[in-house]
TrEMBL record:
Protein's UniProt name: MFS transporter
Taxonomic path: Bacteria, Bacillati, Actinomycetota, Actinomycetes, Kitasatosporales
Spans annotated as Disordered: 467-490
Organism: Streptomyces tirandamycinicus
SUPFAM superfamilies recorded: MFS general substrate transporter
GO biological process, any: response to antibiotic
Transmembrane region(s): 35-54, 66-84, 96-114, 126-147, 153-175, 187-206, 218-236, 257-280, 292-309, 321-340, 346-365, 439-462
Length: 490
């Protein structure tokens, strides 16, 4: 559990740790303003596009082998990024990080699924995993700020190496994958190509929409291409004998509900990270380190919600009664943040909002992560795990683009409506800050609605009973459900 958790933390925090270091890296390597987004986008495209392929490789090779190879490759790519002497070297290293992360992330989650089969142990294991999945991004903001301010931006890459080495050595020595769980069917090459290209087009479309607008010809072209490619992928998967993503993984009601509700929740979360970071640094004047530490209440809330609430109640109540209320508590935290103003108090508004958000997300994430692989056949554990990461990755891309667009539009409208009353440099500066905060608050209202929708999805689609209960799922009888679960414990 320690080594799997360490690897997952490394992958999750890498999605945000580079954000704070990006201005320093851009200046040091001479990266243009137009190309700086590719430091983030190169990782997102490789990671999001190759996740299903990585999950299938984990099923084919064995999760332990895929886990170790992913760690070694991620460490090597991080070393390359830290030693980068130019723009292309840095971008190439980020793409490599994303590719090996796409192998590592589903291998880690599927190892949990096939290793922890006792209900109590599974609850504890997924409690830890859920806390990391939800709070790792905020940890990345803290670590990125500390490393950039006190050492150098290159250490945001080098820091991955000790994580990866410890996790790889530990996994090689102590992780024991249950025998007989591999899927040795031939690789579905058309499925790999269609899913990879479709997901890359989808993620890039949302990423480009943030900087070029939703009506940009290339943005629209990416969305159209994504729909065509993913529709072709589903058609192929329904017909081939050994599909990359067996449709039984998606069509099972509870797993489908988890993927959809998690993806929606991540849309709201990623938007919040973006807006709070800008608010604290630009409006409140916080340093990178202080900004990172300002996210600690959210991390504490997530750890508490996941390990103390979700893990303890998971064996007593159905998952939907943890996920639905959890997302609603998180929505209440978001609702507080809609009251943001230029002079809002951190202790009076932002801190309690973060605590509610963390508690709610942690409570919801824990059963969601467990249910996403619960009852799945061992041969499908890798791709089922990859679907969890895919929903998070796509949700993150949508959240950043959609909510940033909403905020920018609201800010523009506010400035246009109030510009006439601002005279003098100080009044103009205050108006600019007020416009930014108005934009953030408007986008956060959308996040509240998205989280409420996520709660509705969880409460209506997910009908699984508590682990170990005999409640039938929508995909079959209680006897069929019991017959599936032991496959993981083979």
């Amino acid at each position: 559990m320690v080594f799997i958790a360490l690897a997952q933390l490394m992958v999750v925090l890498d999605a945000t740790i580079v954000n704070i270091a990006l201005p320093s890296a851009q200046q040091d390597l001479g990266i243009s303003d137009g190309n700086r987004q590719w430091v983030i986008t190169a990782y997102a495209l490789a990671f999001g596009g190759l996740l299903l392929f990585g999950g299938r490789i984990a099923d084919l090779w064995g999760r332990k082998r895929a886990f170790v190879v992913g760690l070694v490759g991620f460490a090597a790519a991080s070393a390359l990024g830290g030693a980068a002497t130019g723009e292309m070297m840095l971008l190439g290293s980020r793409a490599l990080q994303g590719a090996f992360g796409a192998l590592l992330a589903p291998a880690a989650l599927s190892l949990l699924a096939v290793t922890f089969t006792d209900a109590k142990e599974r609850a504890k294991a997924f409690g830890v995993y859920g806390a990391i999945a939800g709070g790792g991004g905020a940890v990345g903001l803290i670590l990125g700020g500390v490393l950039t301010e006190y050492l150098d931006w290159r250490w945001t890459f080098y820091v991955n190496i000790p994580f990866a080495v410890v996790a790889a050595v530990g996994a090689w020595l102590v992780v024991r994958e249950p025998a007989g769980g591999r899927n040795r069917s031939p690789l579905d090459v058309p499925g790999v190509l269609l899913s990879t290209l479709g997901l890359v087009a989808l993620v890039y479309g949302f990423t480009r929409a943030e900087s070029h607008g939703w009506t940009d010809a290339t943005t629209l072209g990416m969305f159209v291409a994504s729909v065509v490619l993913l529709a072709a992928f589903v058609t192929v998967e329904a017909r081939v004998s050994s599909p990359l993503l067996p449709l039984r993984v998606l069509t099972e009601r509870n797993r489908g509900g988890v993927y959809l509700s998690l993806g929606l929740a991540i849309i709201a979360m990623f938007g919040l990270f973006l807006f709070l970071t800008y608010y604290l640094q630009i409006v409140k004047g916080y340093s990178p380190v202080r900004t990172g530490f300002a996210f600690l209440p959210m991390i504490a809330g997530m750890i508490t919600g996941s390990t103390q609430i979700g893990a303890r109640l998971m064996l007593r109540v159905p998952p939907r009664l943890l996920m639905g209320p959890g997302f609603l508590v998180a929505a209440a935290g978001m609702l507080l943040l809609t009251q943001l103003e230029v002079d809002s108090s951190y202790a009076g508004l932002i801190l309690p909002a973060q605590l509610l958000l963390g508690l709610g997300m942690g409570t919801a994430f824990m059963p969601a992560m467990s249910l996403s692989t619960y009852g799945v056949e061992a041969r499908d554990a890798g791709v089922a795990s990859a679907m969890v990461n895919t929903s998070q990755q796509v949700g993150g891309a949508i959240g950043t683009a959609l909510l940033n667009t909403v905020a920018a539009s609201a800010t523009t409208s506010y400035l246009a409506a109030h510009a006439a009353g601002a005279t003098g440099p100080e009044a103009l500066r205050l108006l600019r800050l007020e416009g930014m905060v108005h934009g953030y608050a408007s986008a956060i209202w959308w996040a509240v609605g998205i989280l409420a929708t996520s709660a509705v999805v969880a409460l209506t689609l997910i009908n699984s009973g508590r682990p170990g209960a005999s409640t039938a799922s929508s995909s079959g009888s209680a006897a069929e459900e019991e017959a599936r679960v032991p496959v993981i414990a083979h």
